Amino acid sequence: MGTLRDHESEITGESAIAPTRVAANGTTAGAIHDMAGHRSITWVITVGNYTDGTYTPVISESDDDGMSGENVVVDADLLPDGTGQEATAALAAAGVSKIGYRGPDRYVTCDLAATSVTTGADIAVVAVKEALDQPVA
Description:
Layout: E1 11-22, E2 26-28, E3 33-34, E4 38-48, E5 54-62, E6 71-72, E7 78-79, H1 85-89, E8 95-101, E9 107-115, E10 121-131
Antiparallel strand pairs: 1-10, 2-9, 3-9, 4-8, 4-10, 5-6, 5-9, 7-8
């Protein structure tokens, strides 16, 4: 058996969207995450108590800590590699999904766009950042 890696010492977790009920179409804004000292970030999206709707992550980036001049992230900077990652990470039923970012900008957000909602679902998003230097506190 090989040496076990301590993954916990390589990551930090942050709340992106606190648990909330989404009962109408619209966008739920996510927290701004500072990528200084980190190589990538993955958002874990959970949808529960589902009745209807589709919940699609929208990842934005900026070099401004207030997200002034923000841009929607291009597919090349999203994880997993490929195209259409935001559509692939969308949830239209109760479940868990994820999407990541490894682009050049310092600040990023993960908003959730809700469509086809009449009564909605409970949502929450947690951000997991991979540190450049391990271990992290």
